[in-house]
Amino acid sequence: MNTEMLSALKEIETERGIGFEMLLEALEAALISAYKRNYGSDANAIVTIDRQSGEYKVYHRRNVVEEVADPKLEISKKQAGGRYEPGDFFDEEVTPKDFGRIAAQTAKQVIVQRIREAERDTIFNTYSAKLHDIVMGVVQRYEQRNMYVLLDGKHEALLPLSEQVHRENYRINDRIRAYVLDVRKSPKGPLVVLSRAAEGLVQRLLENQVPEIRDDIVEIMAIAREAGSRTKVAVHSHRPEIDAVGACLGPKSSRIASVSDELRGEKIDVIRWAPDANTFIQNALAPAKVIGVELFEDDGVALVTVPDYQLSLAIGREGQNVRLAARLCGWRLDITGESEAEENRGRYLSERAEREGVVEAVETEVVAEGAEPAVEGESVDPELLRRLEEIKKEMFEQ
Predict the structure, then answer these.
(1) Which of 2, 234, 249, 255 could form a Cys-Cys staple with 222, CB 3.0–4.6 A?
(2) What is the pLDDT of residues 122-139, one digit of tens each?
(3) Number of structural domains, the chain?
(4) Does any domain span residue 288?
(5) 389: burial class by Cβ within 10 Å (0-12, 13-18, 19+)?
(6) How many CB atoms lie within 10 A of CB 101?
(7) Which structural domain, as residue segments, surrounds residue 223?
(8) Bridge pairing between strands 175-186 and 218-226
(9) CA atoms lying within 13 Å on the CB side of residue 39
(10) In this predicted model, what pLDDT tens digit does every residue of 285-344 receive, in sequence order?
(11) 201: in domain
């Protein structure tokens, strides 16, 4: 170790951003391990490196005591000398003559390892800061249908099959924009997981295109997406003079068209959010017109009536429109045409009553099996309650 080595460490500090003192401390720890591995692990060894000259020394450190119990770890006050008191450290130099070669090899290994760790930390921190944001990359290769994307020309990220959109086809060297879904540490280094199917991708694209969203004038309240096909976005304006839907569409629908183009033609419905569930459900089913909505909050069900001629429009191709609307609103939607509305309502109420009757019968069975009816201050057997809740869940999901 010499001044040239110290100069090299300072250059690494400047170029790689790894602290000079951190490198020296790591090097000292590695030299201790190397010494114990080659010259015996029973001694309490320490290594110091002079910060000016780069000179290193190995010491056998012992505690100064009145009476020695373990000579390898302790030394008497008399042996240590008059300037030492019990509790002090006594360091005796034991630097081996041929330790220079081992020190040089160890230094190289430590520096390489620290550089590798620092680069991994840098990558992890860089992309953790971009979590749930959009990044640009180049398609590098495919492995078992998983796509690997090169970010910033040097960092590899994973776009798994489950986060790809089946109707999108990317070739090697194609540029791709993707959503950073997750950043995690792995034995091989940081793993950046991307997505083209996440709802967050639509949100970020809208934020990029709509200044009112970036300025918190318009807020995205909910998104429901079937990637590659259709997305519904509910928006709300915090200023009455700003039309939330119009702001997202842009002049001649140019803003929403840009988002749709980035998603390879995916259709995007922008609807007006409403605090009232009835109104929100009606808006969510657009472009279909809704005649009425009846809410059953206990069941989380909304009976929706639409004109007969718009029933297929409300349901959508393969049920897509009502499915997305239900996810957007958080209600289970039961849609029927106007001519069958009363019949459908009666059928639903009948089924509801039947379910309640079954639950009541089960509760009676619970009591019959030995548990007293629950009254204030008392409890029922937890296992019987669990069984009752499972039956209720099964009944209401039918």
Answers:
(1) 234
(2) 889 999 999 999 999 999
(3) 4
(4) yes
(5) exposed
(6) 8
(7) 206-273
(8) unpaired
(9) 19
(10) 999 999 999 999 989 999 999 999 999 999 999 999 999 999 999 999 999 999 999 999
(11) no
